[in-house]
Design brief:
Helices cover 48% and strands 23% of the residues. By secondary structure, the protein is of the alpha+beta class. It folds into two domains: 1-68; 105-183, no CATH class. A hairpin with a 5-residue loop joins β4 and β5. The longest helix has 79 residues, at 16-94.
């Protein structure tokens, strides 16, 4: 019977070998899956890091272009201001009336001898103006009856800084007398 038990013992020993192979297979499978997952994570990270790096390069390029565009815009704005100033200066120089508030306002009165300056008294002149009803009129400089004073016609702005020129009259004393609408010079 001992032989049978020995034989029975031999025929039903615990399958350590099969269990070891099975456990090692499971371990290798688990490690393989884990290793594959780690590899896939690293590959995905590398792919995204590459894309992020590329996006950072593109962002830097875009920021540089935006900065250059801002510089160009500031230059263009400065040039526009300069051109507008030059335009205003040219318009003011070519204005035959009064330049007021960046506008050329037509003059309603023209003095032929610039009667507002001191030399105007020695030159006969007249003012031509457009009256309130739109009719052009003219008035000449004249001497008073005594021949000692000049009635100088001149144009002045009324109201002040309005661009509206109107005729006026100034009485000027002539030291050497007045003849034909002009003071005589001392000779």
């Amino acid at each position: 019977m001992a032989e049978i038990n020995q034989y029975h013992h031999r025929s039903s020993p615990f399958p350590w070998r099969e269990l070891t192979v099975f456990v090692l297979s499971v371990v290798f499978v688990v490690l393989g899956v884990f290793g594959w997952q780690q590899w896939e994570i690293r590959r995905t990270e590398a792919k995204y890091n590459s894309r992020i790096g590329h996006m950072n390069v593109e962002l830097t390029k875009a920021e540089t272009q935006a900065s250059q565009t801002r510089v160009n815009l500031r230059r263009a704005e400065a040039e526009l201001v300069s051109l507008e100033s030059e335009k205003a200066d040219l318009l003011a120089q070519s204005c035959l009336g009064y330049w007021y508030n960046n506008e050329c306002l037509p003059t309603n009165c023209v003095d032929s001898d610039s009667g507002e300056n001191s030399e105007g008294r020695f030159t006969f002149g007249s003012v031509t103006f457009i009256s309130g009803n739109g009719v052009e009129s003219s008035e000449a400089d004249a001497c008073d009856e005594s021949g000692s004073q000049l009635q100088e016609k001149w144009c002045y702005e009324s109201p002040s800084r309005s661009g509206n020129a109107v005729p006026g009259l100034r009485v000027i004393r002539c030291d050497n007398g007045c003849v034909e609408g002009a003071c005589l010079r001392n000779e």
